[in-house]
Specification:
The protein is an alpha/beta fold. The chain contains twelve helices and 24 strands. It starts with 8 loop residues before the first strand and ends in a 5-residue tail after the last strand. Bound molecules: shikimate-3-phosphate. Shikimate-3-phosphate binds next to helix 5.
């Protein structure tokens, strides 16, 4: 997929944002529902699937692997082939911008005795794959073409993998998930040991599809997650809750724009995903979870936010996995707070769709906000009197950088321009329309920047 012509956009000071709405389905759960459906016997029906480029690429990939995924009415339907039952695709699998789709699929392909070429866009082709490929190679995956750590590359799995116990060197749910998925195709038990809790949707959903997955604390305070190989997975009906990482932009906008009051309904509040909301509350934001309930094994709530006066806080490193995609937005919010906000333990931000640590600091500096990066710590010096704005932000093919800075501009003195918004379609195609519906004021930039 190529985004040849950038679509710049400016965001301008807006009147109070008001409304009650929902956002599209959770990206992590959407990828997993398609993949686990493909590995199941029978039919999986998914409602609320995120219909964004990243997830559509996963749907196309499972279809190419012989497990057709297609929309029927309001639902997505996957005709599964069972664990180890996928077939060799005719051409390369294109994952576009999606690290999650790529890395989870590597775990699946490891357990299949055929050769597949995996490709992606310029951003994805810069991201490290060794973190997934190295443990998978120990289990039996071969990389038959490509440099090894970056796409494009060609992999060849095998029908019976060797089980392993693996201590995660980085707190990554993608790495954890890839190994657990490979473990489905290994005789006996495969264990991942994680020191910091990362999102646990794979564990929850694999159990829901019929796999045996246990999570137990060890004597060092870590969690040992074990999957038993060669299970029979059966097709299920999955209802995908609204994505808390997408809702974060709307909630941040409500907190920043004076007079606002916004409620986002049915949002996933799994504790491995809610660090952003906890941090906003610690900064003094009026953010509440209303009507908390269970939806298909995951907790959801309506999240309500009102315009608030904020103060800086320290965000501890152990919270990072539960808000890893929300730091660009939090850093923008922090620029309106009294005092400094110190965000620690951000090493993983450097290997996202862009180097988000550098891109966030550069975007803020371009708009009159003082920042400091020391090692893996980002400090934002708040300017409660008002953030200047007026700058242009380089998005580096990163959807979350684009959305975070468009929200910043709704509250700055002069408009904030982002150099491209095309990539927003990878995770949240409805973003601009939903924000305008709440009262946000965006202006198209005719000239390419
Ligand atoms: C994801 C895990 C996170 C996150 C990504 C989605 C997932 O990546 O940044 O957007 O669905 O497992 P890492 O696991 O690499 O931190």
């Amino acid at each position: 997929m190529s985004h040849a012509s950038p679509k710049p956009l400016a965001s301008c000071k807006s009147p109070a944002l008001k409304g009650r709405l929902t956002v599209p389905g959770d990206k992590s759960i959407s990828h997993r529902a398609l993949l686990f459906g493909a590995l199941s016997l029978g039919t999986t029906r998914i409602s609320g699937l995120l219909e964004a480029e990243d997830v559509i690429n996963t749907a196309k990939s499972v279809t190419a692997l012989g497990a057709p995924a297609a929309k029927e009415g309001d639902e997505w339907v996957v005709k599964g082939r069972g664990v180890g039952g996928l077939k060799q695709p005719e051409g390369p699998l294109d994952f576009g911008n999606s690290g999650t789709g790529t890395r989870l699929m590597m775990g699946v392909l490891a357990g299949h005795d055929f050769t597949v070429e995996m490709v992606g866009d310029a951003s994805l082709s810069r991201r490290p794959m060794g973190r997934v490929l190295n443990p998978l190679k120990t289990m039996g995956l071969e990389v038959v073409a490509g440099e090894g750590d970056r796409l494009p590359l060609t992999v060849k799995g095998r029908a019976e993998l060797v089980p392993m116990t693996y201590e995660l060197p980085v707190p990554s749910a993608q790495v954890k998930s890839a190994i657990l998925l490979a473990g489905l195709h290994a005789e006996g038990e495969t264990t991942v040991v994680e020191a910091e809790a990362t999102r646990d949707h794979t564990e929850r959903m694999l159990r829901f599809f019929g796999a045996q997955v246990t999570a137990t604390p060890d004597d060092k305070g870590r969690t040992r997650i074990t999957v038993t190989g060669n299970p029979t997975l059966n097709g299920q009906t999955v209802r995908v809750p609204a994505d808390p990482s997408s809702a974060a932009f709307l909630i941040a906008a409500a907190v920043l724009v004076p007079g606002s009051d916004v409620t986002v309904e049915g949002v996933l509040i799994n504790p491995t995903r809610t660090g952003f909301y906890q941090t906003l509350r610690e900064m003094g934001a009026e953010v509440t979870f209303e009507n908390e309930r269970d939806q298909g094994g995951e907790p959801v709530a309506d999240i309500r936010a009102k315009a608030s006066t904020l103060h800086g806080v320290r965000v501890p490193p152990e919270r990072a996995p539960s808000m890893i995609d929300e730091y660009p937005m939090l850093a923008c919010v922090a620029s309106f707070a009294t005092g400094d906000t110190v965000m620690e333990g951000l090493a993983e931000l450097r290997v996202k769709e862009s180097d988000r640590l550098a891109a966030t600091a550069a975007g803020l500096e371009a708009n009159g906000v003082k920042t400091k990066i020391e090692g893996d710590t980002l400090t934002v010096h708040g300017t409660p009197g008002g953030v200047k704005g007026g700058g242009t932000v380089e998005t580096h093919l990163d959807h979350r950088i684009a959305m975070a800075f468009l929200i910043l501009g709704l509250a700055t003195e002069t408009p904030v321009t982002v150099d491209d918004t095309a990539m927003i379609a990878t995770s949240f195609p409805e973003f601009i329309g939903l924000m305008e519906g709440l009262g946000a004021n965006f202006k198209k930039q005719i000239e390419s920047i």
